[in-house]
Design a protein that fits this description.
- It is a single chain.
- By secondary structure, this protein is an alpha+beta fold.
- It has a single domain, classed as 3-Layer(aba) Sandwich (Aminopeptidase), CATH 3.40.630.
- It is built from six helices and five strands.
- Strand 2 and strand 3 form a beta hairpin.
- It is globular.
- The termini are far apart.
Amino acid sequence: MINFRKANEADVSKIVAMIADDELGKTRENFQIPLPEEYILAFKAIDDDKNQELIVVENEEAEIIGTLQLSFIQYLTYRGGIRAQIEAVRIRKDVRGLGLGKKMFEWAIERAKERKAHLIQLTSDKKRPKAIKFYEDLGFKPSHEGMKLHF
């Protein structure tokens, strides 16, 4: 049995620990205790935005074992449609490979439908071929070429 809930400020260090605990996260994040203030400020901005949902997944013992962020983007195309963007999906290392990722995506897809989104999208670093295969197995299709400009 797992539980999905909105994250609170007390969860932020566990979320950042999961985000930092992979090959790419190690190079981008600054996980330490005490947690740098920029993470708390970012959490507060996310928490205050009705179009952002930072979610944690708990096991039966109420331990955080996963996290994801859903953003709901209102735009004019698709007759004023709403697009859901899923980001920062992470699962604690010791529970990977047990089907939790699939359950998290199924939950996120249903949540996007509840919010009347007409699609859910994601991006994945090309350095993560296993993740890309996982998303394709869930029915996601590569439809666009993504580009970024870092500052």
